[in-house]
Amino acid sequence: MMFPAEPATRSEYMVDYVQQRLAEGLSAQDVLDAFHVPLNLRRPECEGCAEVLSNVLLHWIAHVQDTKLSAELVAAVRLGDEMQVRVLLDAGAPWDALDESGHSAGAHALRLQHQNCLEALVNAGSVAILAEPAVAVVGGGCLFSGENERYLKQKLSFERDRLLDADARPVMMEWEAPLMAAHADVLCPTNTTAKTVLNIGFGLGLIDTLLQERHPKTHVIVEAHPDVLEHMRHAGWLQRVGVRVLAGRWQQVLPKLINDERGPAKLFDAIFFDTFLEGVDELRRFHKLLPLLLKSGGVYSFFNGIAAHDNFLHRVYSEALRRDLCALGFDSVTYLHVPLEPPDASMWEGTSLRGRNWWLFTEYWLPIARMGSS
Description:
The protein is an alpha/beta fold.
């Protein structure tokens, strides 16, 4: 029998399990034998204390899952053994298992084109991500958490074809224009009636300029950075007919908009989200507002640059977000695969990436989520 890994500080489940086994007449050694715990890890105190015995089991299970099960999962993926991959995942093998060289099981599945194994890993990973508790995203700086509040206090640099923060990180770049055009086509097709649209995050104004070309009935823009707001003011965005600029973070602005006495909830036909240095947790928090903002049949999309350094992780997080949206009442959540030539490395010169290409894929997964009937 194998359990999903649990931190040793949260061993209540294992203590209950051990107490049940001991109550059935098994000895501590019998329980340890059932888990194949090596003799050198067995402690004399196990005989008289269910908590000590449970801690030994927890540490052993964590060891097996972190090493043996990981190695077995990678080996099964390399062989293309879908059945064994699923068995190992059910037994607690980590979906993001790495080999001795640091390559993930998912990377092997992609390289060897073992599609069924890849699907099993992506599904397991997406379920695990959605089960994780939300964490604070201020100033963490880890891979998928945000540090948006620190960014909002920085001085920005507007250059000819890019916007950089004070750390020379690219906030938005001109090479993204074709992607924004594809998003605009999805959000506001040119052959449809005028839409009410909402965009979160102005940046260089790429998506908003494209949306304006489609003559929306109402165009609301939420922007939090003071430098961007000043840039918008100089560019005349605050004076455009039908455009309403809301200054502030969406976390503060949108609840007020939803509860505005001047209009009911479900205000928009199309919504786009593209903020800087906000992680997956914040994106999911935004998603929870969508049923209150988006009309029935309305379209939602977001800039999908999550885990752009890793094709496998990109797929896992894309699937997790698809499931997240489906659970919120969207009838259809798909990804349009847009061909994309990775930008030349010279594009990143003078940025924090120092010539290393941030985008490595030859296609862009453009999210298209359509709200169901209420």
